[in-house]
Design a protein that fits this description.
Strand content: under 5%
Oligomer: single chain
Number of helices: 6
Radius of gyration: 17 Å
Shape: elongated
Distance between the termini: 28 Å
Length: 130
């Protein structure tokens, strides 16, 4: 039996598109819920401006990290993480929980989604689209 007759490349593309949509749509709530769980007063300490900037940076980070995982460029993830830590070091001094923990949760979530997508693409019996 060969399945439902969908070409493996189409299945792979659907998995990758679903990974991008899933990580971009859900990452904000994952980060917010995790930080709220770690610090019940978290939501009261973050300004709207910081939250809005964090959303833009986080979503961009999600797309970049997922892409790097899908192409297998794991070393580049470390470089991006280090560069972000250097650039935002002043911000981290003011509110280390918000920046460091948020970044760690976001990076972990994006990498996990990417690894699952790579496994699912590999399970379809074809080489990855990238």
């Amino acid at each position: 039996m060969t399945g439902i007759g969908i070409a493996p490349a189409v299945t792979d593309a659907a998995i990758i598109v679903a990974a991008y949509l899933g990580v971009v749509v859900t990452s904000g709530s994952v980060v917010t819920r995790t930080l709220s769980w770690a610090d019940s007063e978290y939501a009261d300490t973050v300004t709207d401006t910081d939250r809005d900037i964090g959303v833009v940076v986080g979503k961009t980070e999600n797309v970049l990290l997922l892409t790097l995982v899908l192409v297998g460029a794991y070393t580049a993830i470390a470089v991006i993480f280090a560069a972000k830590s250097i650039v935002r070091s002043d911000d981290m001094k003011n509110n280390s929980l918000f920046y460091l923990a948020g970044t760690l949760v976001n990076v972990t979530y994006s990498v996990m989604v990417g690894i699952v997508a790579r496994i699912l693409v590999g399970a379809s019996g074809t080489t990855p689209v990238f």
